[in-house]
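Standup notes
- DV: blocked on the single-chain target, sequence here:
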Amino acid sequence: MARKNTQTTRIALVTPAGPTRRTGNRISGNRWARILRASGHRVIPLDRYERERCDVLIALHARRSHDSVRRFRDLNPGKPIVVVLTGTDLYRDIHEDEDSRESLRLADRLVVLQRKGLDELEPALHEKTWVIYQSAPASPGQPGNPVKQFTVAVVGHMRPEKDPFRTAMAVRSLPRASRIRVVHIGAAFGDNFLRRAEQEAERNPRYRWVGEWPHWKTRRFMARSHILSITSRMEGSSNVLCEALASGVPVAASRISGLMGTLGDDYPGYYELGDTAGLKRLLLRAETDPAFYESLARHCAEAAPLVNPEREIWTWQGLVREVTR
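- DV (later): unblocked, structure below
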């Protein structure tokens, strides 16, 4: 950890409330709070900004934090605002929602969580935008013998943006000799997702849904899996991707900008979004072709320095120094 600042900055950190405390956004907000506190700042965690006294506002989500951004600017016209953009911001809201666009205009600095996020912003906004990759510490683990079981982890709450049943659909008709088993960790948000998860588990012997687990338990299981399957339709970045890279777990990923911005354009483990047969082929090849599986592991190891905690710490420290000069 770098040396603390000698001058304490009071930072209001707004992370809009979600349906559970274990969302990716909440995990990110908690990590940023730890980084900023360890750097010598006072952090005030909030679901929304009201009138709290502070020197800087850092707000996650251009649309959902818009009221906080607008109120802070009205009450503190000379103080800096940093807006961190999520996947729904970048790949939907800023293109169609005026509140989201106003948050971009009001912010003194913007943060995207992988390099391809810049592609969604107008060039005029690039100068005030920082790329800060999310980080994760390593979580040691060793997968079991793939001849007995090839474990595919799916980690994420069930929301439409996550396309949560794509992996289960992909393994329904695998060859009998395949040892692939899918374990899905995450809450079902809504009765429709709950019913579908229960029905899928009943009908698909290769799929098991275990519900929401504590973060430490999820990380331990993922580190012991053979591959992580990320089927998202949109991502600003992905905490589970960062955690997989930090733990040396190869990834099967939908070919979307929010994942390619971390894994790179030439990563061999992509499948086309919504292509169930393509994901099936990818998982089966990872199970049966050692050279291909090794190529996934090698590419992930090359991307792992992006999610090094020291990199994230130094970048956040630099951003706070810049806006508080």
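- Follow-up: The chain has two domains: 10-133+309-323, 150-306.
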